[in-house]
TrEMBL record:
Organism from which the protein derives: Heterosigma akashiwo
Protein known as: Kinesin motor domain-containing protein
GO biological process, one term: mitotic spindle organization
Name of a matching Pfam family: Kinesin
Family note: Belongs to the TRAFAC class myosin-kinesin ATPase superfamily. Kinesin family.
Length: 397
């Protein structure tokens, strides 16, 4: 047993911006990240270091995503939602606008968004901010609204965007309301005890916050989405020792995470086909990988040698994600009309460049593929501005 442990991957060092692993056949290898936290980090530190960026991006009008990935029992749900019992503590503290130290990034994000809502209600505020949330679970290919327990459907909304039809959209007006929504969700979530985690999440969970900002005088409107995703834990069945229904759940979880891994590898290789449609999970996260979202990935892992292979896998996944380039553009315009005009101008330039290359018989070149992808993303952004649809006509052939 000792020899087998020595032959497996293991964590050698955890540094502020690097994790050093021993990998069989490769030797010692360092993996660089924007920030690395050890087991002593407080929840507030984790939020400030990796989650606040996407939240601020969403408040600045960009679509954003925070995704948590790792082995079962490594701290994903703790990071996103906090430890068991923290929501009850938060319910008691919410009246005063406070949060318990153990509150996860979801509640901390809600508090930051609600602060923006409050500022928009102050006398003389130029912009009104409204927020709402959907809370869904993807379990064995079935999408469920965690606010109601009812089944929801994943639907193509066009422009590469997929939405959860049938999932309740709950207005976020107070911190207490956000806590109550997360508490209701706990009653519908799927958990199971395994040899590796006595309370293992058996489904992928998505907390989606929609932020709408309206300029009171100009009639401006800006809409953005923040996805906070707690992925079900990847696990080795021989280690988790699950059987029956729990084994079937583990197979389904591992399968959807494998597709997610293939999507990331396809994006890095710039392949013409990215297998989003092989899993509902990857369709749900389509915009977060290779789309127009400002995405941050939090990877959790165990320092124990016995879990070295799983931690090594998670760290390598995180390193690959860091190399995926999304195309998020800053929302610098202050009105729907200005936003539409800016996007329309970019569409015209892109269409003209594409027509020029195709006319010279160069439609097969990588440059054409990139222009087509740019056009698709611009069209996606244009469709997000319905109020300005009649302002201009765009040749987006």
């Amino acid at each position: 047993a000792a020899r087998r442990r020595r032959e497996g991957a293991r964590v050698l060092a955890v540094q502020p911006a690097q994790v050093v692993l021993y990998l069989p056949g490769q030797g010692v290898k360092g993996f660089a990240f924007a920030r690395v936290f050890d087991g002593r980090a407080e929840q507030g530190e984790v939020y400030a270091g990796c989650a606040r960026g996407p939240v601020l991006a969403a408040l600045n009008g960009l679509n954003a995503c925070l995704l948590c990935y790792g082995q079962t029992g490594s701290g994903k749900t703790h990071t996103v939602f906090g430890p068991p019992g923290v929501l009850d503590q938060a319910a008691l503290a919410a009246g005063g606008g406070g949060l318990p130290p153990g509150a996860g990034v979801a509640l901390r994000a809600c508090r930051e968004v609600l602060e923006a809502v409050r500022r928009g209600e102050e006398p003389g505020a130029a912009v009104r901010v409204e927020a709402s949330a959907q809370y869904v679970e993807l379990y064995q290919g079935r999408l469920t609204c965690l606010a109601t327990g009812r089944e929801a459907q994943l639907r193509d909304a066009g422009g590469g965007r997929f939405v959860c039809r049938g999932a309740a959209e709950t207005p976020l007006a107070s911190l207490g309301g956000a806590v109550a929504l997360l508490q209701r969700g706990e009653t519908w979530k799927h958990y199971a005890a395994t040899a590796m985690n006595h309370r293992s999440s058996r489904a992928h969970t998505v907390f989606l916050v929609t932020i709408t900002q309206t300029h009171r005088r100009l009639g401006a409107m800006l809409r953005s989405e923040l996805h906070i995703v707690d992925l079900a834990g990847c696990e080795q069945i021989k280690k988790s020792k699950v059987a029956g229904q729990a084994r079937r759940e583990a197979v389904g979880i591992n399968s959807s995470l494998m597709v997610l891994g293939r999507v990331v590898r396809a994006l890095l290789a710039d392949r013409p086909h990215v297998p989003y449609y092989e899993s509902k999970l990857t369709l749900l996260l389509k915009g977060a990988f290779g789309g127009s979202s400002r995405t941050a990935v939090v990877v959790t892992g165990s320092l124990a040698d016995e879990h070295g292979d799983e931690t090594g896998h998670a760290v390598r996944f995180g390193a690959r994600c860091a190399r995926v380039t999304n195309r998020a553009g800053a929302a610098e315009v202050t009105s729907v009309a200005a936003a539409a005009a800016a996007v329309d101008q970019a569409l015209r330039r892109t269409a003209a460049a594409l027509r020029g290359l195709e006319a010279r018989g160069k439609g097969h070149l990588p440059a054409c593929r990139k222009l087509r992808e740019r056009r698709r993303l611009l069209l996606e952004r244009r469709k997000a501005l319905p109020a300005a649809a009649a302002l201009s006509t765009v040749d987006d052939r």
